Amino acid sequence: MAKNQELQDLVYQVRRDILRMVHKVNSGHPGGSLGCTEFFVALYNEVMDLKEGFDMDGIGEDLFFLSNGHISPVFYSVLARKGYFPVEELNTFRLINSRLQGHPTTHEGLPGVRIASGSLGQGMSVAIGAALAKKLNGDNHLVFSLHGDGELQEGQNWEAIMYAAGNRVDNLIATVDRNGQQIDGPTEKVLPLGDVAEKFKVFGWDVMEIANGNDLDQVVAGLKEAKSRTGKGKPVCIVMTTEMGNGVDFMMHTHAWHGKAPSDEQLAVALAQNPETLGDY
Amino acid sequence: MTKYTDQGKQDTRSGYGAGMTELGRTNPNVVALCADLVGSLKIETFIEENPERFFQVGIAEANMMGLAAGLTIGGKIPFASSFANFATGRVYDQIRQSIAYSDKNVKICASHAGLTLGEDGATHQILEDIGLMKMLPGMTVINPCDFNQTKAATIAIADHHGPVYLRFGRPKVPNFTPVDQKFEIGKALMLNEGTDVTIIATGHLVWEALLAAESLENQGISAEVINIHTIKPLDEKAILDSVKKTGCVVTAEEHNYLGGLGESISGVLAMHHPAPQEFVATKDTFGESGTPEQLMEKYGLNNKAIEEAVLRVLKRK
């Protein structure tokens, strides 16, 4: 179907953007970014109800908060490709005087970003606060958030998870990127998270799963299903299984590419696996 | 010298509560958050009159700071309140990233600052909060001196766009500033003009500074007393104008001398007009249990300590 092809083309292009951004400055986080490419592409282009342009308050539109800010490359690429700022600006990622800081921030006035993130575990609280403001404003739009699985080791998340359920914050869809990896290795070795879905459930959330977060159709269907479950008294959690480094064969099945950029040769190999569909910046 | 009358002892935290009551009635965007300390923060009336605009977060201060940051997105003006220790040190990174660095319009309102909460001891006293908060870029830091000024400051910060740390306390202290005095952020208040020494005080120490000035006057020493309620941004002109006249300064605060008001004033003087300075502040120590009066005596934070500091600084002129 035509729409699906458009999204798939965008996925390829966003992967190329991620790889080229981190390669240019020899730093940044390609692994988690690649793993969440389908999620970002689907969310911004098929799921969220967005206004033209950008204002901080975002009244009358859906909002998104990225809690695991280190996957900024995918966030920036999708925002630029959506028209929040010029695609050419991706060239400035992590450079001095850039709005595209290593981790996302509002401080430089980059359209599309509503909170700084990077120090982990803070985004869910912020998303809940924004959801509460929407309720106070009589704004029926939704708040989406994304969290790394390793990030759930930060205790503030569990304060927030308890709060959202206890206060029926049912205009919130929090997605956990369950890639099973963190800097020092597999999450289940570093500090076991166990059954993430069950944990959210016993805290009182409505939990669903996306079994393959790198399958575009599954992601679109899952996010739409999550939307249909809002407004029923419970916050909604999606536990989304992804493969870190997805779309680049040598970056998959390892945590080695969490925060490492490819060499010139590796970049060439990686780009060859992802055709230029919409034009490189 | 100018006479100030104690209109009756009241706690500054009740000034915060009274300010919140008024904001609840006048500003529909103001919302309040609290971490299981509603009674201590005196915001019962706000909650009673505006239940939909109050968020009880439980004993979870980190989440409270994040919720407050999020509530600004959509135009709310959150007043997040707890004890000063739990509203600053415990949640420093949440304030740093989600509020200060993110330029969020959050008011962090902290009671039980300093030693004067008394018997609970050092776990609940904080003498480092001014330093922690003033180091954050863009953060406004305010420490009002009595009930009236705390109420006025609470109301004033709602109209100031940007993060604010408002610090106040638990004990009942003299209420002596005019009930209708307008609160101007960053504007020092001249309480008594003098020529021999400048005493610059903040918070609970302002009344003590006035008592010290009165006693000094009886000894033939003319002390100028300035109330610095806003520690950041600092009213540098008021400080320099006074010290240029008197040639020396005593700073007084319920806080560690490291990181406090006195240190900020030292910086201003070092840059523009070096002059002898004595610090009435705690000396890099934790507090302990005791009555507020006992603690202020033991840690050298009362009118007597200010008077002694003046006599010391005069010898260094």
UniProtKB/TrEMBL annotation, chain A:
One Pfam family of this chain: Transketolase_N
Record keyword Chloroplast present: no
Keywords: Thiamine pyrophosphate
Presence of keyword Nucleotide-binding: no
Residues of the Transketolase N-terminal domain: 11-268
Cofactor dependency: thiamine diphosphate
SUPFAM superfamilies: Thiamin diphosphate-binding fold (THDP-binding)
Family of the protein in this entry: Belongs to the transketolase family.
Official protein name in the record: Transketolase
Organism of this sequence: Flagellimonas sediminis
From TrEMBL, chain B:
The protein's name: Transketolase family protein
Region (Disordered): 1-20
Family in the record: Belongs to the transketolase family.
Keyword match NADP: no
Record's compositionally biased regions (Basic and acidic residues): 1-12
Any Pfam family the entry gives: Transket_pyr
Residue ranges annotated for the Transketolase-like pyrimidine-binding domain, each copy included: 10-175
SMART domains, sorted: Transket_pyr
Keyword annotations from UniProtKB, A to Z: Thiamine pyrophosphate
Top-level taxon in the UniProt lineage: Bacteria
Source organism (scientific name): Flagellimonas sediminis
Keyword Signal: no
Cofactor requirements of the protein: thiamine diphosphate
